[in-house]
Amino acid sequence: MAVELPKAAIERIFRQGIGERRLSQEAKDVIYEFVPKMARYAADSSKAILDASGKKTLMEEHLKALTQVLMVDGAEEYDGELFGRATVRRILKEAGVERASADAVDLYNKLICRITEELGERAAEYADEDDRKTVQREDVERAITCIMPRADEFL
Amino acid sequence: MAVELPKAAIERIFRQGIGERRLSQEAKDVIYEFVPKMARYAADSSKAILDASGKKTLMEEHLKALTQVLMVDGAEEYDGELFGRATVRRILKEAGVERASADAVDLYNKLICRITEELGERAAEYADEDDRKTVQREDVERAITCIMPRADEFL
Prior knowledge:
By secondary structure, chain A is mostly helical. Chain A is built from six helices and four strands; from the N terminus they run αβαβααβαβα. Helices cover 65% and strands 5% of the residues of chain A. Chains A and B meet through helix 2, helix 3 and helix 6 of A and helix 2, helix 3 and helix 6 of B.
């Protein structure tokens, strides 16, 4: 099932990571496609960790475990823009998570937003290394490859 | 803490993935360093999923969840060479897993062996694409980057 996340929000959250740098249209297109896929992957993964716990309600600790497995830094402390709570609840539901605590939904939201922001930070570093003021598609793809497992599933 | 895994076994398991192709010394060196790190990462991740479940004993379902999160294909059906059971129990213990069922230890073992074998399969594909009969360091690094999250932690 396709996950719907507003492009404008995806872009704003990603831009938190790139500061004043410019962003090419091709790079934006990669992000618009990547972030919903990554959100769905994170929801499926949350469901797998929930199932392994033998419980019925997704709790904050399941998301903490996912954060650790994915080695995401700063998810719990993330204080940037978030996606709408109803939207992320729907994504979790589509992944089979019928019940989730408010804390779990919030941490899931922070996790996917932090990955999006971090993607911007990494892509910006690659653009800087290459002495460019514009973040290009290749920078974003390289960042995705570094951050995600099974990069080819996301590109 | 450093994880000890016998280089000869690492190499044999990796070679299951590359068939008759040759393997450069530099490529071997990357694998000898990567596999123990990856094994430790998989043990830490198993511990995180165990903790999220609120249980004390690592069970097969915790490893199934990790397999799903890492999108590893064929871990449960893996029937190649395995590492010694006492060795992998020790790695899990070093990661804080005090108790583990025999099934969990076996699936953990299969998981890390399958990732090693798959690394060989991918590296071999990259060598083939490049019309080389020898798997080189760059092929292995590219395979690690594609398979693992946070590739820079493993290279």
